[in-house]
Automatic annotation (TrEMBL), chain A:
One GO-annotated biological process of the protein: tricarboxylic acid cycle
Family: Belongs to the succinate dehydrogenase/fumarate reductase iron-sulfur protein family.
The protein, known as: Succinate dehydrogenase/fumarate reductase iron-sulfur subunit
Alphabetical list of Pfam families matching this protein: Fer2_3, Fer4_8
Cellular component aspect of the GO annotation: plasma membrane
From TrEMBL, chain B:
FAD-dependent oxidoreductase 2 FAD-binding domain mapped to chain residues: 10-429
Stated name of the protein: Fumarate reductase/succinate dehydrogenase flavoprotein subunit
Organism per entry: Jiangella asiatica
Active site per database record: R322
Domain (Fumarate reductase/succinate dehydrogenase flavoprotein-like C-terminal) ranges: 485-595
GO molecular function: steroid dehydrogenase activity, acting on the CH-CH group of donors
Stretches of the chain forming a coiled coil according to its record: none
Origin superkingdom: Bacteria
Length: 262, 608
């Protein structure tokens, strides 16, 4: 059963733009991305919008829908009131390229600054051993689809362009936390998280967690524990050392390959 | 032409999915200067959609497993049409490729002993798929992406290659895209963001562009899957092998319409899910082919016992190779025993606890909940076949990945031969790791061995720009979106899961008409991030690969794997000794029959 949907879609480029009205025929069960695609196919062939998987798995189709950062492919039209106009605008924290496409290169630059994973050497039989419980924490963080919705919603950069050079943003606090909690990683990333990534600027508003389409508890499970570790590091290194050793000691000895001097 | 942006590399990798990233890492490790070009942002490639796992005979769960068993499963799954050497290298090297990912930060699910856990999948004798819940592809791509970034490899994101250039190429007429020169010299493309052109000079080019799914109406593939690498290779003079074999994944979503085709992972069945028709019958027991009878359970009891005791029971028929299951579903729906929205039921709710389902299949739970209002822990899913993978691709040397064109390599889905007539689930992620690495290394070695670099003529670049811009010069022509839709319709209806001579002839007639239509495409707007223009360019590739599929499918007068002929339903031993190769001859696709590479006796014995 098709019906007509009224939409306002931001069109323009770096030099400016405006909301343009469209009326588009949609079907039961469709999502915002379907409506945008139909506009492309029938009314505005050059409407720029990113997408890939159309299943909430790649994080390409991030836009702001009625002012809320969302994945266009996972926002069902049935979530709107009948007759409600659906307004789609580009992510606010990033510069517009064209229409709904923004320049998200900031995120890729931050990613380059994260020191890579540095594992312990392999044990003699070639197989690393980790317990399921120990990988699950990192696995939660690695569900991240890099949609950057948490980045765009975080007030530290949403309205403060000037903070960008010194703030990595929630997606990358997640990355720091993931590596810090990785059972095999040998780097100490706490100092970096504080100095380079600016984790201190986060005041735990939890907006990032609220928008995360993967339901990752960014603040509770990554940022807060990282902040604690950073604080430990700054004020009391002994506590941290104790914790790190304690964590490893939870594994049976045979499963903890140690480097000389470790 | 002096103002065009130019970059120079030893190895240029086209595509940043698993194969492309792995190739780039290998080439970098071999000392080459490497550039990666990809149509989307980094980390968005279709590899993220792979759910189930990476097949590798590590023996972590079943010690009996080894490369020979994996090799045998792969060849049998491919109906013996695979290139034996590729299947051998793949089975031998996959375990190391998985362990290496762990060294780069991947966090796989674990066994109770702390080793990498392995799950059951269709066509694999033992539980063999290293996995991370049901989002293994995401883990793989993120791991490789982070590794490539750590190594400082140059990535050109949202940049599309439209043509390859060879040494000695000259600008010919604007409608002839067949290249005549010698060694690969580089690639020409445009930035999506600005629409500006860019030239990459490189004596080795690795194609890692994935598949062709966008030529079909119902597909699990994203917009990027337009057969670019297949077309680029053909136009450079390489051949494509096995193009008649297209895999329809048996379980795609069928409702609501907007999600039709989105993948439902095979892990649902690997973890205990079963297929039922509208009468509630587990119909797969009615479709066990002779070839697999000996190893497939013939009663529900035995099938159910297998999950716990694999030594004394045979596999459930739901875990037959994908082609068998897709055909069975198709037949049930045709016979009127389908589900309300034209699929069948996939039921795990009545067989496993909600906790188990949510833990093992979190993305599936999420996907059905959000997109279809279906709680898979409480009710069955509706599923049906969706175009998922093309077995056919660039014919390459198994050891190096090099095509018939010197300097042109292919790895991953765009390469052909490895999977024969049908690919087993889980063998794709391992394929792209094994052959991504091999092609990357060899592309780097070859570039290092060259005494002189190939050169690119300015006129060739000018001609390529003119071809790319053509749609802007046509007023009131065809809408590319409309043409794409019509093309998908033709391929879906006439060269789909079940094929017939008259329908394929009809398809070929239609495709001829499309050739005229894509010469008259017009696009609105300007060059900056213009999806209509991008599609207009991609359509040329889609049309070319569609023609290859249709011609090869018409030629092969038998049914085998991902190629089912209504008019030739039997598998024919004579055809079992032949591969079909497609080449470009002028504007047309020519198909030739070539004998299968001869398998050495010590491997042949495994099938005794
Ligand atoms: S919790 Fe911190 S990182 Fe998250 S949105 Fe708020 S300030 Fe930003
Ligand atoms: S953490 Fe969540 S919101 Fe942020 S980029 Fe990842 S998936 Fe998106
Ligand atoms: S298109 Fe992939 S998340 Fe929306």
């Amino acid at each position: 059963m098709g019906y007509d949907l009224d939409m306002k879609v931001w069109r323009g480029d770096a030099s400016g733009g405006e909301l343009v009205d469209f009326t588009v025929e949609v079907e039961e069960g469709e999502v915002v991305l379907d409506a945008l695609h139909r506009i492309q196919a029938t009314q505005a062939g050059d409407l720029a919008v990113r997408w890939n998987c159309k299943a909430g798995k790649c994080g390409s189709c991030s836009t702001e829908i009625n002012g809320k950062p969302r994945l266009a492919c996972m926002t069902r039209l049935s979530t709107f009131e009948e007759g409600e106009t659906v307004t789609v605008t580009p992510l606010r924290a990033f510069p517009v390229v064209r229409d709904l496409v923004t320049d998200v290169s900031y995120n890729y630059k931050v990613a380059e600054k994260v020191p890579p994973f540095a594992p312990e050497p392999r044990p003699a039989d070639g197989a690393y051993r980790m317990q399921q419980v120990d990988v699950e924490r990192g696995q939660e963080f690695r569900k991240c689809i890099e949609c950057f919705l948490c980045q765009t919603v975080c007030h530290v950069i949403r309205d403060h362009e000037e903070n960008k050079p010194s703030f990595a943003g929630p997606r990358f606090f997640l990355r720091y936390a993931e590596l810090e909690m990785h059972p095999l990683d040998t780097n100490d990333r706490r100092e970096l998280a504080r100095e380079q990534a600016g984790i201190g600027l986060c005041n735990i508003t939890k907006c990032c967690t609220e928008v995360c389409p993967e339901g990752i508890k960014i603040t509770d499970n990554a940022i807060i524990p990282m902040k604690e570790r950073v604080a430990d590091r700054s004020y009391d290194p002994v506590t941290w050392l104790g914790r790190k050793i304690f964590r490893r000691d939870q594994l049976p000895d045979a499963q903890v390959p140690r480097t000389p001097g470790d | 032409m002096t103002e065009i942006e130019r970059h120079s590399f030893d190895v240029l990798v086209v595509g940043a999915g698993g194969a492309g990233l792995r190739a780039a890492i290998a080439a970098h490790d071999a000392g080459a200067r490497v550039g990666i070009v990809c149509k989307s942002l980094l980390g968005k490639a279709h590899t993220v959609m792979a759910e189930g796992g990476i097949a590798a005979a590590m023996g972590n769960v079943w010690q009996e497993d080894n490369w020979k068993v994996h090799f045998r499963d792969t060849m049998r799954g491919g109906k013996m049409l695979n290139h034996w050497r590729m299947a051998q290298l793949h089975a031998q090297e996959a375990p190391d490729r998985v362990r290496e990912l762990e060294e780069w930060g991947a966090l796989f699910d674990r066994t109770p002993d702390g080793l990498i856990s392995q799950r059951d999948f269709g066509g694999h004798r033992y539980a063999r798929l290293a996995h991370v819940g049901d989002r293994t592809g995401l883990e793989l791509i993120r791991t490789l992406q982070q590794r490539a970034v750590a190594l400082g490899i140059d990535v050109f994101m949202e940049c599309t290659v439209t043509e390859l250039v060879k040494d000695g190429d000259t600008a010919t007429s604007t409608d002839k895209r067949v290249s005549a020169g010698g060694r690969i010299a580089g690639a020409f493309g445009y930035w999506r963001e600005s629409g500006r052109f860019v030239l990459f000079e490189a004596p080795s080019v690795v194609l890692a562009t994935g598949g062709i799914g966008k030529s079909y109406k119902v597909t699990s593939n994203s917009w990027e899957y337009t057969g670019d690498g297949h077309a680029l290779a053909l136009q450079s003079g390489a051949s494509l092998v096995n193009m008649e074999f297209v895999q329809f994944h048996p379980t795609g979503m069928v409702w609501p319409p907007s999600v039709k085709g989105i993948l439902v992972t095979e892990s649902v069945r690997g973890d205990g899910g079963v297929l039922r028709n509208s009468e509630g019958r587990r119909f797969m027991f009615d479709y066990i082919p002779e070839f697999f009878k000996a190893e497939t359970a013939d009663s529900e009891d035995e099938a159910d016992r297998w999950y716990e005791d694999k030594t004394n029971n045979r596999r459930p028929p739901e875990l037959l190779p994908r082609d068998e299951v897709a055909r069975a579903i198709n037949a049930e729906v045709k016979a009127g025993r389908g589900s309300p929205h034209g699929g069948v039921f996939l039921d795990i709710a009545s067989r496993r606890t909600p906790e188990y389902i949510r833990r093992r299949l979190p993305s599936m739970y999420h996907q059905f909940k959000e997109l279809a209002d279906v709680d898979i822990t409480a009710e069955p899913m509706e599923v049906g076949p969706t175009c998922h993978y093309v077995m056919g691709g660039v014919a390459v040397d198994p050891d190096t990945g090099e095509s018939a064109v010197p300097g042109l390599y292919a790895a991953g889905e765009v390469a052909g031969g490895m999977h024969g007539a049908n690919r087993l689930g889980g063998n794709s992620l391992s394929d792209l790791l094994v052959f991504g690495r091999r092609t990357g290394l060899n592309a780097a070695y070859a570039a290092a061995r060259l005494a002189t670099r190939p050169s690119i003529d300015d006129d060739v670049v000018r001609a390529a720009s003119e071809r790319a811009l053509a749609p802007f010069g046509i007023e009131g022509g065809e809408n590319p979106y409309g043409v794409q839709q019509d093309l998908q319709e033709v391929m879906h209806n006439l060269v789909g899961i079940i094929r017939r001579e008259d329908e394929m002839r009809q398809a070929l007639d239609d495709l001829t008409k499309f050739k005229e239509r894509i010469g008259r495409l017009s696009v609105e707007g300007h060059r900056q991030y213009n999806p209509g223009w991008h599609l207009a360019i991609d359509l040329h590739n889609m049309l070319l690969v569609s023609e290859c599929i249709a011609r090869a499918a018409l030629e092969r007068t038998e049914s085998r794997g991902g190629h089912t002929r209504d008019d030739f339903p039997a598998t024919d031993d004579a055809w079992g000794r032949l591969n079909l190769h497609c080449r470009l001859d002028g504007d047309d696709v020519a198909v030739t029959r070539e004998p299968l590479p001869e398998m050495p006796d010590e491997l042949r014995e495994l099938f005794g």
